[in-house]
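Illustration: Arsenite efflux ATP-binding protein ArsA.
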Amino acid sequence: MSRFQVVSGKGGTGKTTVAAALALALATEGKRTLLVEVEGRQGIAQLFETESLPYEERKIAVAPGGGEVYALAIDAERALLDYLQMFYKLGSAGRALKKLGAIDFATTIAPGVRDVLLTGKACEAVRRKDKQNQYVYDYVIMDAPPTGRITRFLNVNDEVAGLARIGPIHNQAQAVMRVLKSPETAVHLVTLLEEMPVQETADGIAELRAAELPVGRVIVNMVRPHLLDEDTLRTAVGGRRKEIAKALTRAGVTGSAGLVRPLVEQAAEHAQRVELEREQRAVLADLELPGYELPLIDEGMDPAGLYDLATELRKQGVGEGAGQGVGT
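Result:
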């Protein structure tokens, strides 16, 4: 499995939740993962019910088997200060620029540079090794921007080409793209079994492929169970109320006549949803990508729910060695 897992998806599909569950699943059996946030929403801290993440890597969870999940909220301004110190040794001068507002100005007027800084910090964590020449993190998972912006966000080399054709910024963008376009990286898209998220997922995959960025898996989130078998669904769609009324009477249900209408209406709505989901599954199947499915958790998401989703991902093969990544 690729060491850098980028998770995107249309707003409302639960991409942050999926990224967090993926980090937990990959940390099972003693692995160490880093969960990275780049949008400044502190969504990871909220999910794990911890205090806001600072601009530093902090352990936020322990996975089954003793694995560890660390998290980092990448701030573009702080990343630029790191960059200035790394390449220009500005030190206190860089901090003075921040006080003057120059750092905020630079990251605002040059969004391409901002994306280089954000992706560059994550890629540095992917490549980082300890004194024993071992990777510090087995996996880095990024909670990335939504599907509509993901290709432009990741394709930073093109973004900065007109801004810096030579020099440190250019070299940094080149280094980032070497990681992003390598087998080390997989970009996963999260969707629901609904028309708009599925269409945006299909469009996003086409854009990623056109940019030669490595598409990983389609992760279908919040999958609701099918409550009726095929025969019952056909009965519901057909509106065969008399048959339902007779069945209720035979079952000894009193006042069955008054129950028929609401039961039929609910069954018909369920049958319609099942049919719509089938149509969307067919669209996803045409994308010819492997995928995962995660169930809807009715009680709302909390750390216990994240562990449940991580267990489900493990059941579906997450973390079981190579061959789970791009194009497999």
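Reading the tokens back as a structure: Residues 225-288 form one domain.
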